[in-house]
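Please, structure for the following, as tokens.
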Amino acid sequence: QVQLEESGGGSVQAGGSLRLSCLVSGRTFSSVALGWFRQATGAKRELVAAISWSDGTTWYGDSVKGRVVIFNDNAKKIVHLQLNNLTPEDTAVYSCGLARGVYVGATRVPGVDYDMDYWGKGTLVTVSS
């Protein structure tokens, strides 16, 4: 079994920044992708960013491109999500997901083209104007 634990959420004013972290524990796999997704009240869940642990390929959601960076520390099994220049529209529950079987050269987008296999409980980000 895999456990994902998010941290780093909280309240911030518009224009501010936050760094979210997702710690992976339990059973591990060699070829995976980790992704951050968000869901605002009344909205569908959407991809924020994802990264392949096989070759470092990254994917970003259209609504956050240029304001978000995803990066990982494989040795510590942590994936970080740096959120910059936040707006009230970024207010949502941010969740970390893991997909297995993501190999070198993968092009399909995790969580968009196929489902994630494991999910964390999420962390709330609130951006005030």
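The radius of gyration is 14 Å. DSSP finds no helices and eleven strands in the chain.
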